[in-house]
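stage 2 :: seqdesign
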Protein backbone atom coordinates (compact mmCIF):
# COMPACT_ATOMS: atom_id res chain seq x y z
CA UNK A 1 0.00 0.00 0.00
CA UNK A 2 1.42 3.40 -0.94
CA UNK A 3 2.00 6.28 1.44
CA UNK A 4 -0.72 8.30 -0.29
CA UNK A 5 -3.43 5.67 0.21
CA UNK A 6 -2.47 4.42 3.66
CA UNK A 7 -4.74 5.32 6.56
CA UNK A 8 -3.08 6.90 9.62
CA UNK A 9 -2.11 3.84 11.69
CA UNK A 10 1.43 4.90 12.52
CA UNK A 11 1.28 6.85 15.82
CA UNK A 12 3.76 9.34 14.40
CA UNK A 13 1.08 10.38 11.90
CA UNK A 14 -1.03 11.66 14.78
CA UNK A 15 1.63 13.70 16.57
CA UNK A 16 0.67 17.03 14.96
CA UNK A 17 -2.96 16.36 15.85
CA UNK A 18 -2.22 15.52 19.48
CA UNK A 19 0.07 18.52 19.70
CA UNK A 20 -2.69 20.74 18.37
CA UNK A 21 -5.22 19.24 20.79
CA UNK A 22 -2.84 19.80 23.72
CA UNK A 23 -2.27 23.41 22.64
CA UNK A 24 -6.05 23.92 22.36
CA UNK A 25 -6.79 22.79 25.90
CA UNK A 26 -3.76 24.44 27.45
CA UNK A 27 -4.65 27.76 25.84
CA UNK A 28 -8.27 27.37 26.95
CA UNK A 29 -6.92 26.91 30.49
CA UNK A 30 -4.91 30.13 30.07
CA UNK A 31 -8.07 32.02 29.07
CA UNK A 32 -9.76 30.67 32.20
CA UNK A 33 -6.81 31.57 34.45
CA UNK A 34 -6.61 35.12 33.11
CA UNK A 35 -10.38 35.64 32.97
CA UNK A 36 -10.60 37.48 36.29
CA UNK A 37 -8.57 40.34 34.78
CA UNK A 38 -11.57 41.14 32.58
CA UNK A 39 -14.22 41.01 35.30
CA UNK A 40 -13.93 44.72 36.06
CA UNK A 41 -14.80 45.68 32.48
CA UNK A 42 -18.16 47.56 32.57
CA UNK A 43 -20.73 46.21 30.13
CA UNK A 44 -24.22 47.25 29.09
CA UNK A 45 -27.29 45.35 30.37
CA UNK A 46 -28.34 42.26 28.44
CA UNK A 47 -31.45 43.04 26.38
CA UNK A 48 -32.30 39.64 24.90
CA UNK A 49 -31.33 36.96 22.41
CA UNK A 50 -30.27 39.43 19.72
CA UNK A 51 -27.93 41.25 22.10
CA UNK A 52 -24.29 40.27 22.54
CA UNK A 53 -23.32 41.15 26.09
CA UNK A 54 -19.49 41.06 25.95
CA UNK A 55 -18.65 44.26 24.09
CA UNK A 56 -17.48 47.71 25.08
CA UNK A 57 -20.16 50.31 25.89
CA UNK A 58 -18.00 52.90 24.10
CA UNK A 59 -15.71 51.34 21.48
CA UNK A 60 -12.53 53.16 20.54
CA UNK A 61 -10.66 53.48 17.26
CA UNK A 62 -8.04 51.00 18.46
CA UNK A 63 -10.56 48.45 19.76
CA UNK A 64 -12.18 48.38 16.32
CA UNK A 65 -8.96 48.62 14.34
CA UNK A 66 -7.27 45.75 16.16
CA UNK A 67 -10.33 43.46 16.05
CA UNK A 68 -11.00 43.98 12.34
CA UNK A 69 -7.37 44.41 11.30
CA UNK A 70 -6.19 41.23 13.01
CA UNK A 71 -9.24 39.35 11.70
CA UNK A 72 -8.52 40.36 8.10
CA UNK A 73 -4.82 39.52 8.46
CA UNK A 74 -5.67 36.10 9.93
CA UNK A 75 -8.24 35.42 7.22
CA UNK A 76 -6.05 36.42 4.29
CA UNK A 77 -3.11 34.41 5.67
CA UNK A 78 -5.21 31.23 5.87
CA UNK A 79 -6.80 31.70 2.47
CA UNK A 80 -3.34 32.28 1.01
CA UNK A 81 -2.00 29.04 2.49
CA UNK A 82 -4.97 27.04 1.19
CA UNK A 83 -4.60 28.56 -2.27
CA UNK A 84 -0.88 27.84 -2.25
CA UNK A 85 -1.47 24.17 -1.40
CA UNK A 86 -4.13 23.73 -4.08
CA UNK A 87 -2.21 25.60 -6.76
CA UNK A 88 0.89 23.43 -6.16
CA UNK A 89 -1.14 20.26 -6.61
CA UNK A 90 -0.14 18.81 -3.24
CA UNK A 91 -1.56 15.37 -2.44
CA UNK A 92 -2.69 13.69 0.78
CA UNK A 93 0.19 12.23 2.79
CA UNK A 94 0.74 10.77 6.26
CA UNK A 95 3.20 13.52 7.15
CA UNK A 96 2.97 17.28 7.29
CA UNK A 97 3.66 19.36 4.22
CA UNK A 98 5.65 22.52 4.76
CA UNK A 99 2.45 24.50 4.24
CA UNK A 100 0.83 22.62 7.16
CA UNK A 101 3.65 23.68 9.46
CA UNK A 102 3.16 27.26 8.26
CA UNK A 103 -0.61 27.02 8.87
CA UNK A 104 -0.14 25.66 12.40
CA UNK A 105 2.30 28.47 13.18
CA UNK A 106 0.06 31.17 11.68
CA UNK A 107 -3.02 30.01 13.59
CA UNK A 108 -1.12 29.63 16.86
CA UNK A 109 0.30 33.13 16.39
CA UNK A 110 -3.12 34.68 15.83
CA UNK A 111 -4.57 32.79 18.82
CA UNK A 112 -1.90 34.39 21.01
CA UNK A 113 -2.49 37.75 19.33
CA UNK A 114 -6.25 37.56 20.01
CA UNK A 115 -5.55 36.85 23.67
CA UNK A 116 -3.35 39.94 23.91
CA UNK A 117 -5.86 42.00 21.93
CA UNK A 118 -8.66 41.03 24.31
CA UNK A 119 -6.71 42.01 27.41
CA UNK A 120 -5.59 45.33 25.94
CA UNK A 121 -8.59 46.47 23.86
CA UNK A 122 -11.26 43.87 24.81
CA UNK A 123 -13.62 44.15 21.86
CA UNK A 124 -14.16 41.65 19.06
CA UNK A 125 -16.17 41.86 15.85
CA UNK A 126 -19.35 41.64 17.93
CA UNK A 127 -19.25 45.40 18.34
CA UNK A 128 -20.23 45.93 14.69
CA UNK A 129 -22.03 42.82 13.43
CA UNK A 130 -25.03 40.78 14.58
CA UNK A 131 -24.68 37.77 16.84
CA UNK A 132 -26.68 35.85 14.25
CA UNK A 133 -23.87 36.30 11.73
CA UNK A 134 -21.50 34.40 14.02
CA UNK A 135 -24.04 31.66 14.64
CA UNK A 136 -24.86 31.54 10.94
CA UNK A 137 -21.23 31.02 9.96
CA UNK A 138 -21.02 27.91 12.13
CA UNK A 139 -24.37 26.61 10.84
CA UNK A 140 -23.14 27.04 7.27
CA UNK A 141 -20.05 24.98 8.10
CA UNK A 142 -22.11 22.17 9.65
CA UNK A 143 -24.57 22.11 6.75
CA UNK A 144 -21.74 22.11 4.20
CA UNK A 145 -20.24 19.06 5.93
CA UNK A 146 -23.57 17.22 5.75
CA UNK A 147 -23.71 17.87 2.01
CA UNK A 148 -20.05 17.13 1.29
CA UNK A 149 -19.97 13.87 3.26
CA UNK A 150 -23.15 12.40 1.80
CA UNK A 151 -21.29 9.94 -0.49
CA UNK A 152 -19.34 8.58 2.51
CA UNK A 153 -22.08 8.14 5.12
CA UNK A 154 -25.37 9.10 3.53
CA UNK A 155 -27.67 11.92 4.55
CA UNK A 156 -30.48 10.14 6.45
CA UNK A 157 -29.87 6.76 8.10
CA UNK A 158 -27.31 5.81 5.46
CA UNK A 159 -29.44 6.93 2.49
CA UNK A 160 -27.15 8.63 -0.01
CA UNK A 161 -29.10 11.53 -1.45
CA UNK A 162 -28.45 11.72 -5.22
CA UNK A 163 -26.71 15.08 -5.32
CA UNK A 164 -25.10 15.74 -8.73
CA UNK A 165 -21.39 14.98 -8.87
CA UNK A 166 -20.48 18.51 -9.92
CA UNK A 167 -22.12 19.93 -6.79
CA UNK A 168 -20.26 17.50 -4.54
CA UNK A 169 -17.00 18.21 -6.37
CA UNK A 170 -17.50 21.95 -5.93
CA UNK A 171 -18.27 21.48 -2.22
CA UNK A 172 -15.08 19.46 -1.69
CA UNK A 173 -12.81 21.73 -3.71
CA UNK A 174 -13.84 24.98 -2.03
CA UNK A 175 -14.80 23.82 1.45
CA UNK A 176 -11.44 24.88 2.88
CA UNK A 177 -11.99 28.52 1.96
CA UNK A 178 -15.53 28.55 3.35
CA UNK A 179 -14.63 26.70 6.55
CA UNK A 180 -11.66 29.00 7.09
CA UNK A 181 -13.95 32.01 6.88
CA UNK A 182 -16.57 30.47 9.19
CA UNK A 183 -14.07 29.50 11.90
CA UNK A 184 -11.90 32.63 11.81
CA UNK A 185 -14.88 34.96 11.65
CA UNK A 186 -16.50 33.45 14.74
CA UNK A 187 -13.08 33.26 16.44
CA UNK A 188 -12.61 37.04 16.18
CA UNK A 189 -16.27 37.75 16.90
CA UNK A 190 -15.83 36.99 20.61
CA UNK A 191 -13.38 38.49 23.11
CA UNK A 192 -11.48 35.84 25.07
CA UNK A 193 -13.55 36.04 28.24
CA UNK A 194 -13.80 33.09 30.62
CA UNK A 195 -17.48 32.21 30.91
CA UNK A 196 -18.18 28.46 30.63
CA UNK A 197 -19.81 28.97 27.23
CA UNK A 198 -16.88 30.99 25.92
CA UNK A 199 -14.34 28.49 27.21
CA UNK A 200 -16.03 25.56 25.48
CA UNK A 201 -16.53 27.70 22.39
CA UNK A 202 -12.87 28.70 22.18
CA UNK A 203 -11.70 25.14 22.80
CA UNK A 204 -13.96 24.05 19.94
CA UNK A 205 -12.67 26.84 17.70
CA UNK A 206 -9.05 25.95 18.47
CA UNK A 207 -9.73 22.33 17.48
CA UNK A 208 -11.26 23.51 14.20
CA UNK A 209 -8.22 25.70 13.55
CA UNK A 210 -6.05 22.62 14.09
CA UNK A 211 -8.22 20.69 11.64
CA UNK A 212 -7.98 23.51 9.13
CA UNK A 213 -4.20 23.53 9.45
CA UNK A 214 -3.88 19.81 8.67
CA UNK A 215 -5.38 19.96 5.17
CA UNK A 216 -3.99 17.44 2.68
CA UNK A 217 -2.85 15.10 5.45
CA UNK A 218 -4.48 11.76 6.27
CA UNK A 219 -5.31 12.95 9.76
CA UNK A 220 -7.50 15.64 8.22
CA UNK A 221 -9.85 12.96 6.86
CA UNK A 222 -9.71 10.56 9.82
CA UNK A 223 -13.37 9.63 10.39
CA UNK A 224 -13.15 9.73 14.20
CA UNK A 225 -11.38 13.07 14.28
CA UNK A 226 -13.93 14.52 11.84
CA UNK A 227 -16.71 13.20 14.06
CA UNK A 228 -15.20 14.97 17.07
CA UNK A 229 -15.22 18.21 15.08
CA UNK A 230 -18.95 17.88 14.39
CA UNK A 231 -20.03 16.54 17.77
CA UNK A 232 -18.47 19.18 20.06
CA UNK A 233 -21.15 21.61 18.88
CA UNK A 234 -23.67 19.54 20.87
CA UNK A 235 -21.87 20.21 24.16
CA UNK A 236 -21.26 23.85 23.28
CA UNK A 237 -24.83 24.58 22.21
CA UNK A 238 -26.38 22.80 25.18
CA UNK A 239 -24.01 24.46 27.67
CA UNK A 240 -24.62 27.98 26.34
CA UNK A 241 -28.39 27.43 26.41
CA UNK A 242 -28.19 26.05 29.95
CA UNK A 243 -26.08 29.03 31.03
CA UNK A 244 -28.73 31.40 29.67
CA UNK A 245 -31.33 29.73 31.87
CA UNK A 246 -34.11 29.61 29.27
CA UNK A 247 -34.62 25.83 29.56
CA UNK A 248 -33.79 25.34 25.87
CA UNK A 249 -30.73 23.18 26.47
CA UNK A 250 -32.63 19.96 25.56
CA UNK A 251 -33.42 21.43 22.13
CA UNK A 252 -29.69 21.76 21.41
CA UNK A 253 -28.66 18.51 23.10
CA UNK A 254 -31.28 16.35 21.41
CA UNK A 255 -31.32 18.38 18.21
CA UNK A 256 -27.64 17.86 17.51
CA UNK A 257 -27.93 14.39 19.04
CA UNK A 258 -30.62 13.65 16.47
CA UNK A 259 -28.24 14.57 13.65
CA UNK A 260 -25.74 12.12 15.14
CA UNK A 261 -28.37 9.37 15.09
CA UNK A 262 -29.66 10.20 11.62
CA UNK A 263 -26.36 10.90 9.88
CA UNK A 264 -23.06 11.08 11.72
CA UNK A 265 -22.91 7.64 13.31
CA UNK A 266 -23.38 6.01 9.91
CA UNK A 267 -19.93 7.18 8.84
CA UNK A 268 -18.10 5.53 11.74
CA UNK A 269 -18.21 1.91 10.62
CA UNK A 270 -20.46 0.85 13.50
CA UNK A 271 -22.45 -2.36 13.27
CA UNK A 272 -26.20 -2.23 12.84
CA UNK A 273 -26.63 -3.59 16.39
CA UNK A 274 -24.56 -0.76 17.87
CA UNK A 275 -26.48 1.81 15.84
CA UNK A 276 -29.83 0.51 17.05
CA UNK A 277 -28.57 0.52 20.66
CA UNK A 278 -27.46 4.14 20.31
CA UNK A 279 -30.83 5.01 18.80
CA UNK A 280 -32.64 3.35 21.70
CA UNK A 281 -30.49 5.25 24.22
CA UNK A 282 -31.26 8.52 22.44
CA UNK A 283 -35.02 7.86 22.45
CA UNK A 284 -34.96 6.76 26.09
CA UNK A 285 -33.11 9.89 27.24
CA UNK A 286 -35.46 12.12 25.26
CA UNK A 287 -38.53 10.49 26.84
CA UNK A 288 -36.99 10.83 30.30
CA UNK A 289 -36.07 14.53 29.88
CA UNK A 290 -39.41 15.51 28.34
CA UNK A 291 -41.53 13.41 30.71
CA UNK A 292 -44.19 15.74 32.09
CA UNK A 293 -43.79 18.39 29.42
CA UNK A 294 -44.70 16.53 26.27
CA UNK A 295 -45.77 19.70 24.48
CA UNK A 296 -42.10 20.65 24.19
CA UNK A 297 -41.05 17.36 22.59
CA UNK A 298 -41.19 18.96 19.16
CA UNK A 299 -38.05 20.91 20.13
CA UNK A 300 -35.84 17.94 19.32
CA UNK A 301 -36.70 18.04 15.61
CA UNK A 302 -36.18 21.77 15.07
CA UNK A 303 -32.41 21.76 14.55
CA UNK A 304 -32.40 18.63 12.34
CA UNK A 305 -35.23 19.98 10.19
CA UNK A 306 -33.46 23.32 9.77
CA UNK A 307 -30.12 21.70 8.90
CA UNK A 308 -31.50 19.15 6.43
CA UNK A 309 -33.61 21.78 4.69
CA UNK A 310 -30.51 23.97 4.57
CA UNK A 311 -28.59 21.14 2.89
CA UNK A 312 -31.15 21.16 0.10
CA UNK A 313 -31.02 24.94 -0.20
CA UNK A 314 -27.21 24.91 -0.28
CA UNK A 315 -27.19 22.24 -2.99
CA UNK A 316 -29.66 24.29 -5.06
CA UNK A 317 -27.55 27.42 -4.68
CA UNK A 318 -24.41 25.57 -5.73
CA UNK A 319 -26.19 23.95 -8.65
CA UNK A 320 -27.66 27.27 -9.74
CA UNK A 321 -24.29 28.97 -9.49
CA UNK A 322 -22.59 26.25 -11.55
CA UNK A 323 -25.35 26.46 -14.18
CA UNK A 324 -24.91 30.23 -14.50
CA UNK A 325 -21.12 29.80 -14.65
CA UNK A 326 -21.40 27.34 -17.52
CA UNK A 327 -23.71 29.61 -19.43
CA UNK A 328 -21.27 32.52 -19.12
CA UNK A 329 -18.15 30.57 -20.15
CA UNK A 330 -17.07 29.30 -23.57
CA UNK A 331 -17.64 25.56 -23.87
CA UNK A 332 -13.90 24.90 -24.15
CA UNK A 333 -13.25 26.49 -20.76
CA UNK A 334 -16.02 24.85 -18.74
CA UNK A 335 -14.95 22.08 -16.39
CA UNK A 336 -16.35 21.08 -13.00
CA UNK A 337 -14.00 21.05 -10.00
CA UNK A 338 -12.53 17.64 -9.37
CA UNK A 339 -13.47 15.80 -6.18
CA UNK A 340 -9.86 15.08 -5.30
CA UNK A 341 -8.74 18.72 -5.53
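stage 2 :: out
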Amino acid sequence: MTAQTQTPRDPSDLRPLWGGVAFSFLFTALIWAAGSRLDAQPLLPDTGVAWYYWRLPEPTFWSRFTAWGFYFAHQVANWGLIYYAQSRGLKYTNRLHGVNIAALAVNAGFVILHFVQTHVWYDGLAQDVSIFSSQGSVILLLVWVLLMDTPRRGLLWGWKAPFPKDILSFARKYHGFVFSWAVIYTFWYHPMVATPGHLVGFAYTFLMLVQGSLFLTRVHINKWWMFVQESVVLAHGALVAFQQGNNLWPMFAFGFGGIFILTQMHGLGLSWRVRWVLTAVYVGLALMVYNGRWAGLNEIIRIPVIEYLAVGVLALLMGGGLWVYRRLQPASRVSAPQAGD
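stage 3 :: structure notes
- Residues 1-12 have pLDDT under 50 and may be disordered.
- The chain is about 65% helix and 0% strand.
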